Structures are given as C-alpha cells and as structure tokens.
Amino acid sequence: MALELKIQPLRYVLAVCEEGSFHGAARQLHRSQPALSMAIRDLEDRLGQPLFEKNHKGQLTPYGDYCLPRFKELVKQHDQVAKDLQYVAQGEQGRVTMATVPSVASRLMPEFLAGFITEYPNININLHDENADFVCRMVSNGEVDLGISSIWAQDEHLSYTHLFEDNIGVVLHRDHRLANRKSLQWQELEEERFIANGTSRLLHKTEAASLVDNNDFYISNMISLVAMLEAGSGITTLPRLAFPVDNQKLRFIPLSDPKLVRRIGIIKLTNRTLSPMAQALERSILKGLAGAGTRL
Prior knowledge:
- The strands form 2 sheets. Strands 1, 2, 3, 4, 5, 8, 9 and 10 form an 8-stranded mixed β-sheet that branches.
- Helices cover 40% and strands 21% of the residues.
- It is of the alpha/beta class.
- The chain starts with 6 loop residues before the first helix and ends in a 7-residue tail after the last helix.
- The chain is built from 10 helices and 10 strands.
C-alpha cells in the first residue's frame, strides 16, 4: 500500500532545517514545540526511519538528508497546484473560447478584450470570427464556451441574454442617387439591384420581403459584399455595426420603413455550467457591452 504523506509535517521538517532547531521552528510557525515534535515523530514512524539525530535536535540523519530535497519539491508542487486550483476556481486563470459575429469581433472586441486581459492577465482567450448561424452551431456543439450573436431560430439547447440592438440601414455607393438622403423607405428601393446577405433575413415577414425575394445576388462574405458595393453593382441592407465606418466609397442610410434592428446577445448552452473563467468573461461582457448599440 502506497505511503500517504500529509503536507503540514513536511513543512515542520523544512522549518526545523531552516531555523536550525525545533524551538526556532515552533516560534516561526506559531506552534507549540511539543505539537511540532509530535507531528515530526509521527512522520518518522510512518516513514520507518528517523529524520533528525536524537542527540542533536535539528541535525538531519543521512535518511533525512535524502528526504529534505524531496520534501521541498513536494511542498512546492502542492502549493503551486493549490494556487492554480484557487485561481481557476476564482476565474483568474485558464482558457476561454468564444465566437462572435464579424461586426462585433472587429468593432467591439479589440477595446473590450484589451480591458479584460488587463483585469485578468492569466486568462487566455481564443476568439473565433464567424457568421451568426455558425456562432450558434459552435456553442451548441460545445466547441466554444460563449457566443455573441443573434439567434435566428429558437433552440431549446441555447440560452440568450440580450446585450444591445443594432439598427438596420441601407448601404450604397456614395455616388448613388439616394446617397444624400437622411433615411429611406423600402418602397424607394424596389427598382434597385439588391444584394442580399446573411442579415437580410431580417426583412422577411415585413412589407420589404420582396427586396430579398427578388435579389440579384446573395453574398455572405463581407469582403466580397463590400467589393460589390464599392463597384456600384447594387445596394444592400446591413446593421450599423457591420458597416465599414472608414470606407469613403459607401454610405449608410437608416431604413425608416420598416424600422428594423438586429438583436445581439450572449449565447451559451442552457444546461451546462460555465467554467469559472468563462463566468468571469460573461460578467465582463454584460458589464462592458450591454447597451453598446446606443453608443455606436
């Protein structure tokens, strides 16, 4: 049967060696000398060999010399494991994986994550940039701890905590005849070449559904979509957060009729407890990103 060692008696042995006497070790550890001596004798009984010379309290036996570096290593490993377990339990150390829609990843995550890693320097973040459907799929499959996205279809396995709303507008070339308008109604777009994208589904079940139903193109990739718009190949609708703000060739014009918003929130598994690190990230997201749409 393997010998089981308690850590506290090993600390007593190390203290005796450090102080040079049982009396000095007892004083350092704020323990009575008899209690310390008894604990070390019990350890010696369990080991089957004396650690200290009988007539020279504080002087190690040859067996004690053998044990000393091993006791030091064992105590060091114990303390490191205990510290790591505590840090992880408190959400201060470990790894978190998350997925967000591209607009959140590029517009909100850089500043948010800079603040988060300052507060939690020992937490490693893996961030995936995916479309809304894929974000939900990654959360559902357990590939990531958290998602920030919209939920387009109800899923009993996923929970949604709302963060903000993102207004939908029309995106078109700056030279387009409608580019100087303050707002647009869907009827004004009926004769335009419409380029549908992943967020265009927000127009479904509204009076503007025909714009999507009769689209000339469907482009899911944002880089390709922007290239088509810059070439003047058509118009599209996008959430404001998804609009490339530094783009000088395009204009974002709010859609006033119908007035639509994209709902963005935290997505996680309904019946799965988050790790302490993921809980810390979720708390920070709720504090830092709630209502972000009104600040855009």
